[in-house]
Amino acid sequence: MTTVTGESTTDGGVLGRPLDSREDPQLLRGEAVYVADIDLPGTAHMAILGSPVAHAKILSIETKAAEQLPGVLKVATAADFTDVMPLPCIWIPGGVESHFPPHPYGLPGARPVLTGDTVRHVGDPIAVVVAETPRQAAAALAAISVEYEPLPVVTRADEALAEGAPQLHEAVPGNLNAYWTCGDKDRTDAAIARAEVTVELDLVNQRTINSPIEPRGAVGDYNAATGEYTLYASTQGPHNHRFLLSALVLGIPFNKLRVIAPTVGGSFGTKGYLYPDMALVLLLSKALGRPVKWVDTRTGLMNSTVQGRDHRQHVTLAGTRDGRITAVRCTSYANLGAYPSTIGPGVATALMGRSITGMYEVEAAFCEVYAAFTNTVSLGAQRGSGRAEAAFLMERLVDRYAAEIGMDPAEVRRRNLVPKEKFPYDNGLGWTYDSGNYAPNFERALELAGYADLPARKAAARARGKRLGAGIATYVAICGVGPSTRMSKEGMLGGTWESANIRVHPTGEVAVTVGSASTGQSHGTVFAMVAADELGIDPAQVQVYEGDTLKAPYGQGTYGSRSYSMAAPAVALTARKIKAKLVKAGAVFLGVPEDRVVYENGGVHEAGNPENAKTFSELAMAMWYGWGLPPEIEPALDETTHFDPPDFNYPFGTHVAVVEIDELTGETEVVDYTAVDDAGNIGNPKIVDGQIEGSIVHGLGQALMEAAEYDENGILVSSDLTAYALPRAADVPFFTLDRTVTPSPHNPLGAKGAGEIATVPPAAAVVNAVVDALADLGVTHIDMPLTPEKVWRVLEGGDR
């Protein structure tokens, strides 16, 4: 069973209590409203024609037959949208020369809303149909005739950079978006050259497909009377999408676009991006004078929504014979896909490269990334993006190093953990870890996993025809994306602060409105808890609003495990402004000096005289009336905060996987999984535990079964759930969870990111465990995913 024995952070208030998620009942009853549920009066339905080939010139497009089919309202191609700007890329590799398709505003360009000359991946959108029904729109797609002139295809980043490789973009010579580095190359190379021991690995961190329960969707509604557009979209950043679409794609006034995110059925990073469908439904709604709706299919999602991971790496670790790591070096080829996604280049460079040393004190480190374009779906964030790839390479290297020097992998890690007294810690690659106490976290994981008993368990498993192995993986995950100035140095073309507004109604009820946007993280529960804890009231008095740019203050959205360490501090600071105002006003209402006013349990009272008091509801009504307030105190309670932290936060943890391999079939079963994570102070442990469990399963999927497979023609052969395996309940064990608590000094809650951190180590832990189980056969590495066939072939002495 799942066991949680970590330290509680509650001080008797609301935070730290495992409250049920208030969002769950409507989700479980099927009452939540998703984009697919939005049916405005007169809605027409859009379908998108994606290219069936990966690389080709478009010689002609014939749409007349489709236009004449029943119910068809409009067929459009790129020629109909010549005045629409391409989608921009807003995170470029910082500090280095980079090459992108152009954008009229001098920004890096990405893709056009429809492709008119050259398609560059299967699924590249080339035409749209709008019809009265979804079936009629889909039927019309089949009637569009396109003539292609095939071009050579390349799907691997390293091959795309080779001399003579097929070229994707005229503005990007040699397909190289950027050559990006961090760390000290000369120092690292010198340390490797003089090391007592070096180990090297060639790693493939395979491309994977984000698979949220809800595919993407969009509804556009243009109001001709006001000239206003409304976009309903499954987005994790409605405010960002409002700005990007209005100013940089459509060229319309910012005030003329409203973006609404209804219930979003998961994202894992995919729904923070600009996609052509968002602009198309708005443009076509204006053209037709009625709402236009588009909802993707599962196969459509797999051929159009950003994909994750996809690094090919050569990595080296140097150290001493007594287990001290002295240097780490990585050369990585990152596959950006056919077009730069909204933030894809930053994901492939900084988030990975600056994270490669993890929890270890390493004297010299260097990482270089060649970010390249290929004929595949664009690369983007996937839960734990960059950090997961970094942890995988480091943790695999540590196990290889331990085997080389004949030392237990746990002991090697123990000897290299960053000591507590060295925080804040500069990792030499660009990150300064805010706080950490790694050793207790590490030892707790080994204890809960029964690491000392593993030799006996291995022997017992062999007697049953099974091979048992254990794998350890530690991690540090940069989270809480901000501060804005720091992100600008990483190449982010925009701010990364967060905002919150609190209004206290005359009845004493509280409205919290945040710029963040939930994709399933129970914001409505947790942000209510934060406000209630600060104000000393019942969370039931607090209602949370988000996801509508007309109602919410501007905010950056949810990504990078930032909601509780960015938006929640904004809520807390705003609540403190409310309290401070009530103390000032309380002096008036109580007839005492301000320094005699005590704010406690939601009300104010005179120090030493609790009978002279006002409750929260009484204060709310008094402030609403505004009677007797001096000029320096405004009536009503309505405050806003924009929170920009001094630096990132750095959660960390240790995971231990125990696997059993069937010697006859090669099937790998994860029989035990222990995770001890540290996300600073926890707001709602029940919600965090759910995030941790989901994150682990995500990581196990990559380790054991998930892979986006392209053939030599650039066809995605794993384009539906019959060919792309996802973990199910029967594929994972019950988890043993625990936590340590090391508060972050960078926000008033002491919080660190939690939503994706447990996706970072599982792939490394599982591969380490499988290699451990097969070590007596001379196995030193197997590329993911570790399918039964692949493991069976290794058992039979085949390829690894």
UniProtKB/TrEMBL annotation:
Biased composition (Polar residues): 1-11
Source domain of life: Bacteria
Pfam families xrefs: Ald_Xan_dh_C, MoCoBD_1, MoCoBD_2
Entry-linked InterPro entries: Ald_Oxase/Xan_DH_a/b, Ald_Oxase/Xan_DH_a/b_sf, Ald_Oxase/xanthine_DH-like, AldOxase/xan_DH_MoCoBD1, AldOxase/xan_DH_MoCoBD2, AldOxase/xan_DH_Mopterin-bd_sf
Domain Aldehyde oxidase/xanthine dehydrogenase a/b hammerhead: 29-152
Keyword set, alphabetical order: Molybdenum, Oxidoreductase
Region Disordered: start-end pairs: 1-22
Tagged with keyword Oxidoreductase: yes
SMART domains (alphabetical): Ald_Xan_dh_C (SM01008)
Record's keyword annotation contains Oxidoreductase: yes
Protein name: Molybdopterin-dependent oxidoreductase
Annotated organism of origin: Streptomyces polychromogenes
